[in-house]
Amino acid sequence: xxxxxxxxxxxxxxxxxxxxxxxxxxxxxxxxxxxxxxxxxxxxxxxxxxxxxxxxxxxxxxxxxxxxxxxxxxxxxxxxxxxxxxxxxxxxxxxxxxxxxxxxxxxxxxxxxxxxxxxxxxxxxxxxxxxxxxxxxxxxxxxxxxxxxxxxxxxxxxxxxxxxxxxxxxxxxxxxx
Length: 177
What we know:
By secondary structure, the chain is α+β, with helices and mostly antiparallel strands. The chain folds into two domains: 10-122; 126-175, no CATH class. It has three helices and eleven strands, in the order ββαβββββαββαββ. It has helices spanning 14-27, 95-118, 148-161; strands spanning 2-3, 12-13, 38-41, 49-50, 55-63, 69-77, 82-90, 128-133, 139-146, 164-169, 174-175. A five-stranded antiparallel β-sheet has the order 1-9-8-10-11, with helices on one face. Strands 3-7-6-5 form a four-stranded antiparallel β-sheet, covered by helices on one side. Strands 2-4 form a two-stranded antiparallel ribbon. The protein is elongated and about 65 Å long.
């Protein structure tokens, strides 16, 4: 069970999410960040909603076919699918830059995966979330993506534990009960 850290009222697009990762990497002085000649979300996905809470961000750094060093960022989904969503590139080609790009990729991957885990509800936009209302009024999530039938079973657990439940509709992020 986790505290509800959701701040968003609509899903990230892949472009917004990648730009946020780049800003956070820059604020943490990621190596190579100032040497990048290109860093952007995949043009096919840039404006599409990022709604994968059940995926892990991974990255691969490699020398380009004709020039530079590339880092490709992708989602490895729990069902085995791979979804390439962003690329960063520098025109530099030396060994030191390759190591720096690999370190940069690791930082961006860590920042992204940590963010997803700490803000799961920002990536879940279907069905219902439910959990407990704490004494201070904060919400502790028990389930991020369940049905109303699941919630009815959860109510029995709340009754047994003497806890006050909440039900949130994920498309609006509004508590409805």
